Amino acid sequence: MLAASSLMRRLGLAAVLLPLAGSLPAAAQSEKELYEAAKKEGSINWYTGFVQNQLVRPVVANFEAKYPGVRINVTGGRDIDIMIKILAEAKAGGLQADLVEGPSVVKPLREAGLIQPYVPEAAAKLAPNHKDAKGDWNAVLVHYLVPAVNTELVKPADEPKSLEDLLDPKWKGKMAWTGEMTIAGPPGFIGSVLNAYGEEKGMAYLEKLGAQKVATIPSNPRVVLDQVIAGQYAIGLVTYNHHSAISIAKGAPVKWLPVNPAIGAMAREVLLKGGPHPNGAKLLINYLLSPEGQKVIQEAGYIPSNPAVAAKDPSLKPEVTGFKVFSPPPADEDRDIDKWIAIYKKLFQ
Amino acid sequence: MLLVSDLTRLFGASSANSAGLHPLSFSLKDGTFFTLLGPSGCGKTTTLRCIAGLERPDRGSIRLGDTVLFDDADGIEVPLNQRGIGMVFQSYAIWPHMSVFNNVAFPLRVTRGTKPSASEIEALVEDALRRVDLSGFGPRSPTQLSGGQQQRVALARAIVRKPRLLLLDEPLSNLDARLRDEMRAELKRLQRELGITTVYVTHDQSEALELSDLIAVLDKGKLRQLGSPREIFFDPADSFVANFMGSPNLLAGRTLADVAAGGMGQVELANGHTLVCRFPRTLAAGSSTTVSLRPEAIRVTTPEQPPTSDGEINRLDGRLISLDFQGYGSRCLVDIGGHSLQANIDSRAGIGANAAVALTFPATEALALSQ
Amino acid sequence: MTNSSLPASEQLQRRTFWRRPQGSLFTWLAPASVGLVLALLVLPPIAVLIKTSLTQEQTGAYTIAHFRDLFADPQFYTATWNSLLFSGLSTALSILFGTTVAWVVVRTNAPWRGLAYVTAAVSLGTPYILHVMAWLFFLGRSGPVNELYRAFTDTGGNLFDVFSMSGMVLIQGMLWSPLVFLLLAATFERSNAEWEEAARMCGASIARTMWSISFRQAWPAITGMALFVFIRNLESFDVPVLVGGPGRVYLLTTDIYLSTTEMPPKMGRASAFSVILIAVLSAALLCYNRYSANADRYASVTGKGYRPRPFDLGRHKWLGTAVVVLNFLFVLGLPLIVSLWLSLMPFARPFAMAALPFATLENFQQVLSDRHLIGLGINTLVVAAEAATLAMLIAAVAGWLVVRHQAGARLIEVLSSIPIVFPGIVVGVALILIALNLPIPLYGSLTLIMLAFLIRFLPYAMRYAHTGVLQIHRELEEAAGAAGAGQFTVFRKIVVPLLVPALVSGWVFIFLLGANELSMSILLAGANSQVMPVAIYDRWSSGQNVEVFALGLVWTAFMSVLMLVLYLTGRRFLAALRPANL
């Protein structure tokens, strides 16, 4: 029965796709047309690594309120799990995902030929490094990854001020980071160290850090931060500074540290080629980039990618607090990330 | 001496096939072979398990020699493993993971307060195995033994530490007929040889008759009769006992006049005939009475034989219904008007089916019993 | 009392071969169709794994590079050793603990014994991942254990590092002890009470009887169980990934998972790993089969209707109770208390009075207002129920064919026991590979998850059916045959009704395993086929830790109620069905 219904959907999908395929250039639809088409599709399968109770739920609630008749089905999890699912679905010829985002999703999707270029109108407002010229991706929000400390375990005087401070023996076994092999994880940190110190000195530093026995939590940076808050670890390396801000607002004993350099990453939204609900996916991308969507992101405590929409907590931004950011252009990141992962495996696994 | 008094064990209403045990008392002299006999659910196994300590009686007391094993009034209950009783289970309960030797040696090794040396154990086990005719079987695994041999192992294990009391729970019921006869003789020999007080549970009356010094017939948790095999067989206390001891001829009737125990008196049968009977128990005039007649006591003749219905001999006339050839003797069924009687007849007597016959039997063989 | 049981010698020889007269349609149709179904379920995963492990990913050419790389990698040997160590130690722990509890509960008169059954039932209805998360917190650096240690020693260090081999062993051992308890409780209940009574009559003390008779008698069952748990531990996924991951203690299963979660997924390496793991497990299975054959050797059913009188622990009763209560605390109480505490916190906080004012029901509100929750629950129940039903249906026929030595019995036995060497993660990998290559859109569907469960849990279904058929006296069937019933009628009218209790227990067991399964579903669940354990894992790994505890508790409560309803209706149903003297 399940197989049959899925087959029916695929047949229906083909009927919708065929007339669209040749005739319509991606950006030429008006919002109204797009909404109508999305309503016909009925739902959107959004694969997202965003923290559900912080960001996904408000986005879904606001989107569905604005576009009745279009439901968002969320598939969550770690970025890596999501990517694997998408790649496997595509290989099976039954892609279910419509759109996805994450710090390091573009390279594998591009290699698999799964990106449907799309240039939403709102993308015009983004900084050039926050979008792809061909429309392969658009950043819906930006992140800064920094160390965070548990304020009950770390006295203000002991707070690490620099990368060197992390090598203090007193932190041995008391630091953790995520197991996500993305720019927003250990590889990004390794890249930032190599970038800041140069190859040779950087490697020497990383070797010393490896001796500090940093625990790898097989989940995303939010989990690492939660464990720091819970007191399991004193320091979380490579955590999103806006996550700290969100938790501080709830009273959590945590503090993010503007240690140089922070890692700059962004949630690069990608429209998938061959997904079952392309119009709905476009509608959602448009919404996320629209002033309204960016406001929801702002309200949730995240840092909107549209420079016109400020962060709820302005101090999260480097230009306000004054910390340096390592933010390699996507092309560099794609080129180097395998090398960084190899270093991670050698020194930290 | 085993003294059981007022032993009571009641089961909940749910245990339909176990009526429990109403107050039961008996005492056994040392060396007695005592049998608890009765149909399934009569309470005989419950009694045995209470003595063993496998079940706790609700009331009563059990004494073995000068040791009180159980007394509810004094709150005494000796744990079963300290009672020093040997027991053979119905399924033998031979531990399959131990050799025959280890099975038999087990009681010696675990008994509290004794610590026999290896050579002592060996000697005792060898002795026990020899007594049950299993010399040399020690190293074998019990799983390689036949049912009869497992039975002997169980017996050896029960007697190895020379217990004061031996309990046997239907030990022969799992054996085939030929083996059963053999083991019966064996059991009796062993018991006499060891002089060990024995409580034996069975539902087979011929086993009970052959083996026992004393038999208790139980029915629905009540003691029907306690006596020697001869007493039980020849002087059953009531129709239940007579029936259970294998008398097929039970004739309903009414006692005509008061008769004291051991005396002779008249019973009127339902079909109007009057028989002179022996009364093992006192019965009042008019009380419902069952007359028990063993087939072996009845003589079947042609009606032409002289009628001898005096005070010593009863006579009944009837018609032969069926005849089953059984060798020298034949079993026949005779209709005496309202009753059918089983009797034995000489196969060569020349009496055929449907013939008119006369049944004669001594008055002393007709037992008038309460119903 | 007159129930005549078989002579012991005959009982011991029950395993002799015996064949029915051949001829009816059922006689060959049943083995043929069951064999075919089993082959279709069991063989493709192996084939696809072997093929993938020998195929180069990009070119599709034949290669042994995956194996060569593995054997050249020192990490592989570490993982293998860790796997063996972890499985061995946690097996020992759960067997020790589970056996003790089972014996206390079944064979003694310690008060509060019933608590153990409640503990086991609720704990089986709780997702493993919730247990693991709770234990991680409890034993973690900021958990009460280490907090207390620091409070009393002033060292600032930790008494216990949970992210270590010993932490993994402790948690895994606790996870499995309820199952050991349940299975061994059944063994102890079935055991020949006369053996114990005979020992007691021989003068043995309770302890001596326990040691020399009860445990020796249950020894084949215990060692068989130990091997079974050992195999399950080798296959386990939740604890290795959640506890071993952060502690950098890598096992074979974690390495398989990590290979599939690299970018791009290294399916060739994962398959090679899987093939090797299957080989290791097959070796263990051979021992297991040898033992389980021995386990049946002592099987003996007496005709006695009474239940053995439990050992009177006398003054030591409280000791038995202590075991039961301790079991409750470790297996259920602590994880639930920790979960409850965390689910009431706005963010993870150590146990402390200072944190109490923060308590909030917000997490429960969030969970209960999540419109996905009902869909998730239904998906989970449907998948688990489908898999359990299909597995028990197949096993009923297959189990009977095997026990009664019908044609093809040996083949069916082998086929149905093969999946016991498939770790969940391996089945997941294999089914992804199969689904990716099938023309029908199976990938990401609930059907695929159901198929995975069916394959994985078949051996357990067989175990239940097999034991169930063994307990049906052959004469009952022969009598029906003598009465003129054909093979199929005998099966339908005699075997199936008598087998129902075993089938129902097996169904519940598989249903619970399925409802809490993570290692297969995590790889197979798609956008429209989410199941609860995966949702919990996803939410945990994407950082909603406190809310996840609320979700886990809501799910546990639901499953417990469901189990209670199943139990109550099941008991009535079985009571109505069960002939008075069975």
In short:
The complex is a heterotrimer of chains A (349), B (371) and C (582). By secondary structure, chain A is α/β, with parallel strands linked by helices. Chain A is built from 13 helices and 11 strands.
* CA-based shape of chain A: globular
How many DSSP H or I helices of chain A? Answer: 13
The tally of domains of chain A stands at 2
The SSE string of chain A, one letter per element, is HHEHEHEHEEHHEHEHEEHHEHEH
N-to-C CA distance of chain A: 45 Å
Question: What does the largest sheet of chain B look like?
Answer: 6 strands, mixed
The CATH superfamily label of the largest domain in chain A reads: Periplasmic binding protein-like II
CA radius of gyration of chain B:
25 Å
What CATH architecture of the largest domain in chain A would you give? 3-Layer(aba) Sandwich
Based on DSSP secondary structure assignment, what is the total number of beta strands of chain B? 21
Q: Based on CA inertia axes, which overall geometry of chain B fits? A: elongated
**Main CATH class of the largest domain in chain A:** Alpha Beta
Number of helical regions of chain B: 8
Which spans of chain B of ≥5 residues are poorly predicted at pLDDT below 50?
13-17
- Give the count of structural domains of chain B: 2
Features:
heterotrimer; A: 349 residues; alpha/beta; D-Maltodextrin-Binding Protein, domain 2; 2 domains; globular; disordered N terminus; B: 371 residues; alpha+beta; six-stranded mixed β-sheet; 21 strands; 23% helix
Report on the architecture of this protein.
The complex is a heterotrimer of chains A (349), B (371) and C (582). Chain A is built from 13 helices and eleven strands. Chain A is of the alpha/beta class. Chain A folds into two domains: 2-138 and 268-304, D-Maltodextrin-Binding Protein, domain 2, CATH 3.40.190; 143-265 and 313-348, 3-Layer(aba) Sandwich (D-Maltodextrin-Binding Protein, domain 2). Residues 1-27 of chain A have low confidence and may be disordered. Chain B folds into two domains: 2-234, Rossmann fold, CATH 3.40.50.300; 247-293 and 304-370, no CATH class. Chain B has eight helices and 21 strands. In chain B, the strands form four sheets. Chain B has a six-stranded mixed sheet, sandwiched between helices. In chain B, strands 2-1-4-5-6 form a five-stranded antiparallel sheet, with helices on one face. In chain B, strands 14-13-12-15-21 form a five-stranded antiparallel sheet. Chain C contains 24 helices and no strands. The chains are: A alpha/beta (349), B alpha+beta (371), C mainly alpha (582). At the A-C interface, helix 1, strand 2, helix 4, strand 6 and helix 8 of A face helix 11, helix 18, helix 23 and helix 24 of C.
